[in-house]
Write a structure and sequence with these properties.
Order of helices and strands: EEEEHEEEHHH
Oligomer: single chain
Radius of gyration: 15 Å
Number of strands: 7
Distance between the termini: 45 Å
Structural class: alpha+beta
Helix content: 10-25%
Strand order of the largest sheet: 4-1-6-5
């Protein structure tokens, strides 16, 4: 069994006009998502979000607008990923952040973690992601950005 903590962040990368960056998982073709990752050691959730952004996209959070959306999701870990966690762990607690960029841009994907990237309007992005909590977070963008 693994040692991954069942405490993670989800970071929706977007522009002010509701474009969303999605990245495709290397270990599951066709699984599109926002940036995600588990806490390491005793780092804060904000530190986890900043580290995961840098690792997965090369983006430095401080150069953009990172916000804690004050949202918490608890979900069952997919069975094919449970081996990454300690024995008996079946659920994960996920905390949602947003990173607003001035404009859509190419990012530097982490080799071995992600294989492709695309910017989509929020509606299309919400339909494409495999995770229900990721889709729900993306669907909050219009109200967060005043686009309604």
């Amino acid at each position: 069994m693994g040692t991954k903590q069942p405490l993670s962040v989800l970071v929706v990368i977007h522009t002010a006009d509701g474009q969303v960056l999605l990245i495709e998982r290397a270990d599951k073709a066709g699984y599109w998502q926002s940036v995600t990752g588990s806490r390491e050691g005793e780092e804060s959730l904000l530190q986890t979000a900043c580290r995961e952004l840098l690792e997965e996209t090369g983006l430095v959070a401080a150069a953009h607008q990172l916000t804690d959306w004050q949202l918490h999701n608890r979900y069952e870990i997919y069975p094919h990923w449970r081996h990454r966690y300690p024995a008996g762990v079946t659920h994960n607690d996920e905390y949602v952040f947003g990173l607003q960029l001035a404009h859509a841009q190419e990012v530097q994907l982490a080799p071995g973690e992600h294989t492709a990237q695309q910017w989509l309007p929020w509606q299309q992005a919400a339909e494409l992601v495999f995770s229900p909590s990721n889709a729900a977070a993306i669907r909050l963008l219009p109200s967060r950005l005043g686009l309604e």
